[in-house]
Design a protein that fits this description.
By secondary structure, the protein is α+β, with helices and mostly antiparallel strands. A 5-stranded mixed beta sheet has the order 6-7-5-10-11, sandwiched between helices. Strands 1-4-3-2 form a 4-stranded antiparallel beta sheet, sandwiched between helices. The protein has a two-stranded antiparallel ribbon with strand order 8-9. The protein has 2 domains: 165 residues, Beta-Lactamase; 151 residues, Reverse transcriptase/Diguanylate cyclase domain (Alpha-Beta Plaits, 2-Layer Sandwich), CATH 3.30.70. The longest helix has 42 residues. It holds the Pfam family GGDEF. It is an enzyme of class 2 (transferase). This is diguanylate cyclase.
Length: 348
């Protein structure tokens, strides 16, 4: 109901100020649309020239130096410091320090101004609903209450927007946690549960699209001897290096996961048994192509691979594919290691 002793709030010259540093933290997007609706309600409700919801930065919507009526009105609202109580100036020409404001003394000759504070969840005044007119006018108790109701609508929108932000942030954290639960913490590939699940999904998709699917098991040869001779940190380094080289041999939509220990599973959707053999051979060569330096020791790593493909086993379940690939891997190990063996049906 009061002018709040504006002389204690306004700067003597430019009337600049306010608490815009608080306000830039409010989200844009949907909240902007809701605020615009509230401004339209204010125009119709009070029949004033302008209704502006300001968080101390209403001028930001206009180009620097713009002198349109909207830009001038926005700058006028921004120049009034945000207060904890309503500001009602029924005739700015005769009421307090606003009579000296350049937009009152000169064009556009603002006469009426009302501002209702907007509070955040901590009951801090962070903005205001502002009414501007170019003729002096009365502002009754009922008008003041309706203006307060408009500000409450803005506060509600801010809280809803903040809640939506919190929900989105929670969803993002949940997705990250879910991803972390599916990733091997040491080498960053999918873990056993995740790669097995991906195999099931890809098998179902490839089956529906009538495309082949291949599975490769890759096992680092003599890994236990590396751990025993050089320690587990050295073994971890070998796993990381091997995973990196295996990853470099597959396509972006293929999947690599640590199945157990030093054994990796590679899922190749759309790959025939011929492609699977070629990929496995490329992996074998990539791993053995470089010597790994572990302390003062140079290690030449090798891997054994077992492959299986649905164009050779069209009716196999994912569990059966895993069994066949594992059998092929054991055959590669028994055949002298550092080789690739492909699973074939018994009748072939």
């Amino acid at each position: 109901m009061t002018n709040l002793d504006l002389s204690s709030q306004l700067h003597t010259q430019g009337f600049g100020g306010g608490s815009s540093q608080l306000l830039s933290r409010f989200p844009a997007g949907e909240i902007d649309l809701q605020v615009q609706r509230i401004e339209r309600i204010g125009l119709r409700l009070f029949g004033v020239a302008s209704c502006i919801v300001s968080f101390g930065d209403a001028s930001a919507a206009f180009a620097i130096g713009e002198r349109s009526m909207g830009a001038i009105e926005a700058a006028f609202c921004d120049s009034i410091p945000i207060a904890n109580d309503p500001v009602i100036v029924m005739d700015a020409r005769v009421e307090g320090p606003l009579s000296k404001h350049r937009s009152v003394m000169g064009a556009p000759y603002i006469r009426f101004f009302a501002a209702q504070p907007i509070f955040n969840g901590d009951q801090q005044a962070v903005g205001s609903v502002n009414l501007i007119d170019y003729t002096a006018r009365d502002f009754e108790v009922e008008d003041r209450q309706m203006l307060a109701d408009l500000a409450k609508l803005v506060e509600l929108e801010l809280r809803v927007s903040k809640l939506n932000e919190s929900q989105l942030d929670l969803q993002k954290k949940n997705r990250n946690l879910r991803r972390e639960s599916m990733v091997d913490p040491l080498i960053g590939t999918w873990n056993r549960a995740a790669i097995t699940r991906l195999l099931t999904l890809e098998a179902d998709r490839c089956g529906k699209e009538q495309k082949p699917l291949s599975l490769v098991f890759v096992d680092i040869d003599s890994f236990k001897a590396i751990n025993d001779s050089h320690g587990h940190p050295a073994g971890d380094t070998v796993l990381l290096k091997a995973a990196s080289r295996l990853r470099s041999c597959i396509r972006p939509h293929d999947a690599l996961g640590r199945y157990e220990g030093e054994k990796f599973m590679v899922v190749l959707p759309g790959a025939s048994h011929i492609i699977a053999m070629a990929v496995a051979e490329r992996m074998r060569l990539a791993v053995m192509s470089q010597v790994e330096q572990i302390g003062n020791t140079a290690l030449k790593l090798t891997v054994s691979c077992g492959t299986v493909s649905t164009d050779r086993f069209p009716s196999a379940t994912t569990e059966e594919l895993i069994i066949q690939a594992d059998c092929a891997l054991r055959a590669a190990k028994q055949g002298g290691r550092n080789c690739v063996v492909q699973a074939v049906p018994p009748s072939t």
